[in-house]
Amino acid sequence: MPRCADPPGDKRDGGGMFRGRGVRRQLLISLSLMAVVFVGLFLPLADHLISNQFEKFQIDEAQDEARRLERLLLDRVDRLRTSACDYADWGQTVDYVQGKAPAYIEENLSSGGLISLDTDYIFIVDRTLSVRYFAGTSEYAGQSPGDDDVLQPLPTSRLTPLLSDPRIRSILEQPGGTSLIMRVGERWHLLGACPITYPGTSVDKPSYGILGFAAELSPQRIELIGNLVGVPFSLYDAARMSQLARLEDGGDVVMYRVIADSNGGPMVGLEIRYPQPLGEQIRMTRRLFLSTALGIFFIGGL
After folding, report:
1. Cα Dmax for the chain
2. Helix 279-300 / helix 8-37 crossing angle, nearest 10 deg
3. What is the dihedral of CA 159, 77, 183, 231, to 10 degrees?
4. Over the stretch 105-156, which tens digit does the pLDDT of each residue have?
5. How many C-alpha atoms does 133 have within 13 Å on its Cβ side?
6. How many helical (H) and strand (E) elements, i.e. helices and strands, does the chain have?
7. Residues 72, 78, 84: CA angle, nearest 5 degrees
């Protein structure tokens, strides 16, 4: 008895089923290959680009903070210079240096005046840099504040390192005075100083000595200034510094900056540690990006 042939429709359905499985398999293989390329190539590249953009932004922020700190320090030391010039360009100060005004200190200088300038001590020297007066606030002198508002005399030996700096002698020939951030012994000082002269408009008028106001950058004062700016900082010899910034493994941006003096020469170096404010945002962006990418492939594979 002859065998009946399969209905034609059955052959078409079977072939369609096999073709459907083949297309699905090819699609899964393609998606798998795309996933491998995406995870192995695109994700690391995207992560690198994201990290670079965040790092550049944070370094730019650190550089802005460094410039703001530099302006703050220069403004403070320039205020000291301005105050010193007010006293130095005065006939009574000339008379005191020449020994003609014995009541000058008592009548014109006080501890409260120095404190209002946020400074620690004042010095007056003649043209040979011999000390005529050197005194500071009670706190700087290591004494308990008194009620008489009198400046405390300081030993001239504490002034020797400052006067030995060749930049001090050059102030005698600088009519507008100078502003310096300089190392005196183991600590840095903000110094504003002017030549002592009779008032007048002549640019070549003779000088009779130097009057200076200075503030020691103690750890407490450095911390206070850092809090005002919002970043901790340290001071170093300018010769050891270079103007650059780097991102440390620990997450902080470390900024190095050299502050120039009024003549354009290197005066002091700053090291600023700027905590990464965007560290958590970077991690969240990475997690979101990875989750989105994996979600797309998961949905596409259904």
Report:
1. 148
2. 170
3. 140
4. 999 999 989 999 999 999 999 999 999 999 999 889 888 766 568 899 999 9
5. 26
6. 9, 10
7. 145
Tokens of 191: 């110094």
Task: Name the pTM for this structure.
Answer: 0.73
Report CA torsion sign: 193, 195, 201, 202.
Answer: negative
Amino acid 63 reads Q
Distance of alpha carbon 214 from alpha carbon 159, whole angstroms: 11
- How many other C-beta atoms can be found within 10 angstroms of the C-beta atom of residue 58? 22
Q: What is the pLDDT of residues 189-235, one digit of tens each?
A: 999 999 999 997 676 789 999 999 999 999 999 999 988 888 889 99
The values of phi and psi at residue 286, to 5°, are -65, -45
> Looking at this protein, which amino acid is placed at residue 221?
R
Query: Which residue bears the tokens 């393609």?
Result: 30
Distance CA 37, CA 203 (A): 75
Query: Each residue of 16-66: pLDDT tens digit?
Result: 554 556 666 666 666 666 665 555 555 565 555 555 666 676 777 777 888
Count the alpha carbons within 13 Å of 166 in the hemisphere toward its beta carbon: 0
For residues 153 and 173, is the Cβ–Cβ distance under 8 A?
Answer: no
Residues in the chain: 302
For 100, which DSSP code? -
